[in-house]
# Entry
Amino acid sequence: MSEEHRHETHPEIVKRLKRAEGHLKSVIAMIESGRPCLDIAQQLHAVEKAITNAKRTLIQDHLDHCLEDAVGSIGREQRQTIDEFKTITKYL
# Structure
């Protein structure tokens, strides 16, 4: 098993995922109680958004810290490529 791996943003990610969990439980209850599809779709959208934001934060944090540690000291041209890569991932 690997050593413990934590970043500053992990509590924020957990908060977002717990929010998504709450929305998902709400969606299940709404379906079971026969709520309108529009209401259910809105809640599902909230679940997707919370998970997407958590994933985005995790990936950006990984790139900002783990990738930087792995790459180490590099030349200007390579640095520019890494920086462009980190920037473009924000559009995922």
Remarks:
- The mean pLDDT is 87.
- Residues 4 and 64 are 18 Å apart (CA to CA).
